[in-house]
Amino acid sequence: MKFERISNRFLKVGRHPFKMGSKDKEDNDTRVCFCCQTNSALYSQLWPIIFLFSALTDFPMPLPEGKRPGQHRDWGWLPVLIVSCFVAYIYYGYLDRIILVLLRQPSISKTWPIVSIVLFNLFFILFIISYARMVMTEPGYATQMWKQDRPLNILDMALDEIQQNQLKPDSVLNETKWCSICQLWKPDRAHHCKVCNACVLRMDQVNGCIGVRNHRYYLQFLMYVTLFATLTFVTSLAMFVQYHGLSLFDRLALSIIILSGIIVIVVGPFTGSHIWLILINRTTIENSQFQHWNKIRQKNQSAEMKPAGFTEAGNNVFYQNCNRNWIEVMSDNKWLWFLPFSSKSEVMRLDGVHYGYNQNTLKAYLNQVSFK
Question: Which part of the chain is the Palmitoyltransferase DHHC domain (predicted)?
């Protein structure tokens, strides 16, 4: 619990990690695009660019008027293309304009360039695989579970009748919620995603549709991006300084140093914050909701309904301990912590309904719910 209390003070997902300790000027949940309104014609015309910004930064952007939820996913290929171009540029520039230049110099030792090539390609391959698995793997969706065969006349049925004929998923919180859009009972920790237009199991990201089945690939993607960029930046900068800079290398090599350094600064802290979230067993959405509620509570204001799974004291029902929290997302197979692959046991374990929990916290939570 001490580890979780520390996170409540310093971890504010939705802000840049360098500003975690600074004082909020506004609630994260109320942030909107400051330059356009959702009913603006200009906003609609610029939507592909705005969506690219939203997808790459995970900053919540409102839908333009007339757009259906999930319709803008047609532009989902654009972020993939941008990321691929950046990676191809760094890969070519590092190997051709830095490493091969050093290997052609007879007076320079070949040991360090060769070691750099091996590590560089290892991180590159793992980065590409984890990125592909993250993009191509469905996050896991909640489905309708009927007590009998699915009725043929479901469109003619009343809402109460539809609810009564569906089975409720198991819930340790005893508060299964109904999704009016998907017309189904949502399991614990599931949220409706306007991008996917579906209820995502243990939904983590608003725009990227990260859920229970691809959360591990998402973290591995962040880790290998950070390692890939860090190795590129550190080794390139060291070689650039040691071997007289532009007298041996060209401006493309210098741009590789700058670009990889920017990636380290931006993605590195973001990766650290997501590792922390896994260790305290919160998704980005759960943490954002908790921080918003906790901030109002600390101001001694009448706080709105507290997030599901959190007690009045701010304890998380699903927080077990750091080790169990990590295993729940990253697998009990230590090889899978680093390798972006799956196993049959892993697929069976991730049902998106049953999660580990702290018995004492759950007891306190249920007592508070029953008291109200």
Answer: 174-289
